[in-house]
Specification:
There is one protein chain. With about 350 residues, the protein is α/β, with parallel strands linked by helices. It folds into two domains: about 35-120 and about 280-315, Leucine Dehydrogenase, chain A, domain 1 (Rossmann fold), CATH 3.40.50; about 145-275, 3-Layer(aba) Sandwich (Rossmann fold), CATH 3.40.50. It has twelve helices and 14 strands. Strands 7-6-8-9-12 form a five-stranded parallel sheet. A three-stranded parallel sheet has the order 4-3-5, sandwiched between helices. α7 links the parallel β6 (about 165-170) and β7 (about 190-195). α5 (about 130-135) crosses α11 (about 315-325), α6 packs across α7 and α6 crosses α10 (about 275-295). The protein is globular and about 50 Å long. The protein starts with a strand and ends with a helix. It binds the ligand Nc1nc2c(c(=O)[nH]1)N[C@@H](CN(C=O)c1ccc(C(=O)N[C@@H](CCC(=O)O)C(=O)O)cc1)CN2 and magnesium ion. The site of magnesium ion has 5 residues, from loops.
C-alpha cells in the first residue's frame, strides 16, 4: 500500500496499515493471555462532534478486536458523577484504557477528572505525570497524547528523519503543540515553538526541515513561509462554510495546502492526514496498556507494582511534576480553554 501520493502523505493509508498491525497483536494477545485489551470511553453531554468521535473510537476498537466500554452522561451530570464513573472504570479489571472525551461541560473541572484516571489506564496521555515525564530528559511517559504520537508516526512511516532536523511547532496547546514539541525533542530534533507573540514567525518557519502546524487558525502557514523540501504536518481542522457539502462545511487545515504542496517535500492533507492517526494511536496505547496489565508490569498510582525499575519510584514523579510545573500551573485553565476553543473552531 502506498503511504504517499507524490509528496502528499496519505494519513488514512498509514492509519490503516497500523490498525492491521494492531489487530494482529490483539489476536496474538488473545492466544497468549486468553484476554483482550479493553477501552472505556466516557462522554458527558450531547455535543455532535464529540458523539461522532466517540462512535469512531468504539467502531475502531471493534475492528481491531479491542473490547469497548462506554458511559454516556447527560450534560447536567455533576462533577462527582463524572468522577464516580471514572473510578468505576479504574476498578474494572477488564478495562485497560480510559478516556474522557473533551471538552467537558464548563461546570466540570477537567483537570480533576483527567487527574482521577488511573495512571495505568491514561491512554490519552493527558495526566500531568505523563506530561511531566514527556518533558524530562532520560524519562518516558507511560503514555503520550495521541495526536502528537500520530504526527511522529506519520514522519516515521513515511521515512522522514527527525534526528538532528530543525523542527518548528506552530502552537503550544496542551493536547498537541507542547507534547508534539517534546516528542520531537525526545527524537533529537532541534525544536522551536511559535506562538502568538513570536516575532517574524515566517522567518522562524522558513528555517524548519519539519513544520507541525497546530495553531487552530485556518491557512495561517503560507507556502512562501516554507523551506523548499520541508515536511509539513498540518494538525488543524477548522470547520469552514461550504455550500457544496451536505453538512454545510468542510475542514480546512492550519496550512494553506494549495500554496504549500508545491513547496513542501511532504505534506499532510486535511482531512485525511493527522486526523485518522489520532484514533489509531489511541488503539496502540490501549493495546500497550493491556500488554502491561497481562504481563504484570503495570504501575499503580505511579508506584512500581512488579518488575518496575527502581527509577520508577517517587522521586522522578516529584521531578516530573516540578519540570512540568508551568504546564500544570497553567494547565487546568489552559487545557479547558484550548480544548473548548479547538473543538469549536477545529475538530482536532
Ligand atoms: N479525550 C480526548 N478528547 C479529544 C481529543 C483526544 O485526543 N482525546 N482530540 C479531539 C477530537 N478527536 C478525538 O477525540 C478526533 C478528532 C478528529 C479525528 C479525525 O479522524 N478527523 C478526520 C476528519 C473526520 C471528519 O470528517 O470529521 C481528519 O482530520 O481527517 C479523530 C479524532 C478533541 N477531543
Ligand atoms: Mg470544563
Amino acid at each position: 500500500m502506498s503511504l504517499m501520493n507524490g509528496n502528499i502523505i496519505d494519513g488514512k493509508a498509514v492509519a490503516e496499515q497500523i490498525r492491521k498491525e494492531i489487530a494482529a497483536q490483539v489476536v496474538a494477545m488473545k492466544e497468549k493471555y486468553k484476554r483482550v485489551p479493553g477501552l472505556a470511553v466516557v462522554i458527558v453531554g450531547e455535543r455532535g462532534d464529540s458523539q461522532t468521535y466517540v462512535r469512531m473510537k468504539q467502531k475502531a476498537c471493534e475492528e481491531v478486536g479491542i473490547a469497548s466500554f462506554g458511559s454516556s452522561l447527560p450534560a447536567s451530570a455533576s462533577q462527582e458523577e463524572v468522577l464516580a464513573t471514572v473510578r468505576r472504570f479504574n476498578n474494572n479489571p477488564d478495562v485497560h484504557g480510559i478516556l474522557v472525551q473533551l471538552p467537558l461541560p464548563p461546570h466540570v473541572d477537567e483537570a480533576a477528572v483527567l487527574g482521577a484516571i488511573s495512571l495505568n489506564k491514561d491512554v490519552d496521555g493527558f495526566h500531568p505525570f505523563n506530561i511531566g515525564r514527556l518533558a524530562m530528559k532520560g524519562r518516558e511517559p507511560l503514555f503520550a497524547p495521541c495526536t502528537p504520537l500520530g504526527c511522529i508516526a506519520l514522519l516515521d512511516r513515511c521515512g522522514i528523519d527527525i534526528k538532528g532536523k530543525r523542527a518548528v511547532v506552530v502552537g503550544r496547546s496542551n493536547i498537541v503543540g507542547m507534547p508534539v514539541a517534546m516528542l520531537l525533542n525526545k527524537r533529537d530534533a532541534t525544536v522551536t515553538i511559535c506562538h502568538a507573540s513570536t516575532k517574524d514567525m515566517e522567518a522562524v518557519v522558513r528555517d524548519a526541515d519539519i513544520v507541525v502546524a497546530a495553531c487552530g487558525r485556518s491557512k495561517m502557514v503560507k507556502g512562501s513561509w516554507l523551506k523548499p523540501g520541508a515536511a509539513v504536518i498540518d494538525v488543524g481542522t477548522n470547520p469552514t462554510p461550504d455550500a457544496t457539502k451536505k453538512s454545510g462545511f468542510k475542514l480546512v487545515g492550519d496550512v494553506d495546502f494549495d500554496e504549500a504542496k508545491s513547496v513542501a517535500g511532504a505534506i499532510t492533507p486535511v482531512p485525511g492526514g493527522v486526523g485518522p492517526m489520532t484514533i489509531t494511536m489511541l488503539l496502540q496505547n490501549t493495546v500497550e496498556s493491556g500488554r502491561r496489565f497481562f504481563e504484570g508490569i503495570a504501575l499503580e498510582d505511579a508506584k512500581p507494582v512488579k518488575r518496575g525499575p527502581s527509577a520508577e519510584g517517587v522521586t522522578p514523579i516529584i521531578m516530573g511534576m516540578f519540570v512540568a510545573g508551568i504546564i500544570i500551573k497553567e494547565g487546568v485553565t489552559l487545557l479547558r480553554r484550548i480544548i473548548t476553543r479547538s473543538s469549536s473552531s477545529s475538530s482536532q
